[in-house]
């Protein structure tokens, strides 16, 4: 599982697209080194599954004559991979190399000579100077998920030495050079298929990449790959779509992602850049779903507040309300009338919301009588943070502007209601929004991926997550 999380980020992707990504991912040398360590542990386990077939034959040995022999039950005892490396080939892909590897094996031998003499014993097999080099390729399936494979693999074995024990082992030693050559070819022939299988075995796990991650019952976010990675000598950049959609109805927003580049930071293993396009596509989706609305009644106002949602409170500023609707409670309906707009500037994330506030008098029979409609323009500051594998946030009110849309109670000074609406926004609307934002939105992830040592920066037109990565074993 851990190895597959690395290969998705360091492999060569075959698909291309002209569309700008909403999300970019950058793997640094620190991340590549961590992946190499995980990868070697996985490949080492794979090499322990080497199966050396039984060998038998005839060999003429002077002065004894023809000898029948067999080597069987050959099993791996130890695998050592002291040297390995991953090289990023600019503009091309990734090269994985393993050098000076050693294998220790053990097996049984049998021999028959002079027609009637039989003997048996054990032997130790030492394989030294094993080298493997392969390129790693990845291509996208029909859903934008990766599928990996090994290409251009080559393996070499410097030497194979066999030491026979027991019985007539001296007889084997007379023609062990022949045995050494045969075993060397057998071991060398198996190396590349084993490495290829180790890489191919990652594909079922790679399918766990959340290319279409559910956010809630209204929205999902797509993280499919939209372009080949940019490979340099020190890093790899991956481009993901990064777009919110209504579940079951993928409608493109009336705006497109703009190009952006990640900064040359290298302290963390991984950097994720999420553009303003991605978060604004969320606003488009939720506004289209019609859920950016909130009905507010007096019981939602803290009891300690001197301002109550009643015709008495509003009648203080609008006498016609007190005259026509004495002693009634008031209900406010706050909703957006345009898609919220998120703006990223260095160290500053803001959301501009254009909405409306409709006030109703609640009649004794629970029917609602409209009082007025206000146009509401607000600006909120946004604090972004990573929680687990999600991007979460909280907002605070910057400023608010009110204008009169419709009045059913005559003309009045809208500014007189600013204090009431400010209290409602701060005590009810903002906390409700923060509850939802605290739930977070899923980040791109594979399997049991965990982010550690995470920092969030807001830059021009995008936010940057710098993080190290761990995978559960």
From TrEMBL:
Cystine crosslinks = 153-192
**GO molecular function annotations of the record:** lipid binding
Q: Where in the cell is it found?
A: Secreted
Identify the main location.
Answer: secreted
Highest rank taxon of the organism: Eukaryota
Q: For the Lipid-binding serum glycoprotein C-terminal domain, which residue ranges apply?
A: 264-467
* GO biological process per UniProt: defense response to Gram-negative bacterium; innate immune response
**Does Transport count among this protein's keywords?**
no
Q: GO CC annotations?
A: extracellular space
Q: How does it assemble?
A: Monomer. Homodimer; disulfide-linked.
Protein name, UniProt field: Bactericidal permeability-increasing protein
């Amino acid at each position: 599982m851990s190895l597959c999380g690395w290969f998705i980020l360091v492999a060569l992707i075959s698909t291309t697209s002209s569309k700008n990504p909403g999300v970019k991912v950058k793997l640094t040398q620190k991340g590549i080194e961590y992946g190499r360590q995980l990868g070697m542990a996985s490949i080492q386990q794979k090499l322990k599954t080497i199966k050396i077939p039984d060998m038998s034959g005839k060999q003429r040995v002077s002065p004894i004559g023809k000898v029948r022999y067999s080597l069987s039950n050959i099993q791996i005892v130890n695998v050592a991979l002291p040297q390995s490396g991953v090289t990023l080939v600019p503009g091309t892909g990734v090269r994985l190399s393993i050098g000076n590897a050693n294998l220790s094996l053990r097996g049984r031998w049998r021999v028959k000579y002079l027609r009637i003499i039989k003997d048996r014993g054990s032997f130790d097999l030492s394989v030294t100077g094993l080298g493997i080099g392969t390129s790693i390729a990845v291509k996208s399936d029909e859903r934008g998920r990766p599928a990996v494979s090994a290409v251009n693999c080559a393996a070499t074995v410097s030497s194979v030495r066999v030491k026979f024990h027991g019985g007539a082992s001296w007889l084997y030693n007379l023609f062990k050079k022949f045995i050494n050559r045969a075993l060397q070819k057998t071991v060398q022939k198996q190396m590349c298929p084993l490495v290829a299988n180790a890489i191919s075995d990652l594909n079922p796990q790679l399918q766990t990449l959340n290319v279409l991650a559910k956010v809630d019952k209204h929205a999902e976010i797509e993280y499919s790959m939209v372009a080949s990675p940019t490979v340099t000598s020190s890093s790899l950049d991956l481009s993901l779509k990064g777009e919110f959609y209504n579940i079951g109805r993928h409608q493109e927003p009336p705006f497109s992602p703009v190009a952006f580049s990640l900064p040359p930071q290298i302290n963390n293993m991984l950097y994720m850049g999420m553009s303003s396009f991605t978060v604004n596509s969320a606003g488009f989706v939720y506004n289209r779903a019609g859920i950016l609305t909130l009905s507010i009644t007096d019981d939602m106002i803290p009891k300690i507040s001197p301002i109550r949602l009643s015709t008495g409170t509003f009648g203080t500023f609008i006498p016609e309300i007190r005259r026509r609707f004495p002693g009634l409670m008031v209900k406010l309906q706050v909703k957006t009338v345009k898609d919220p707009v998120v703006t990223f500037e260095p160290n500053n994330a803001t959301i501009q919301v254009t909405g409306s506030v409709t006030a109703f008098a609640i009649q004794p029979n629970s029917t609602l009588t409209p009082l007025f409609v206000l146009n509401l323009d607000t600006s909120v500051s946004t604090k972004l943070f990573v929680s687990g594998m999600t991007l979460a946030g909280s907002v605070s009110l910057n400023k608010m502007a009110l204008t009169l849309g419709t009045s059913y109670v005559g003309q009045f000074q809208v500014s007189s209601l600013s204090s009431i609406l400010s209290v409602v926004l701060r005590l009810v609307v903002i906390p409700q929004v923060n509850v939802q934002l605290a739930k977070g939105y899923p980040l791109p992830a594979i399997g049991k991926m965990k982010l550690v040592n995470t920092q969030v920066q807001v830059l021009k037109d995008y936010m940057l997550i710098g993080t190290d990565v761990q995978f559960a074993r």
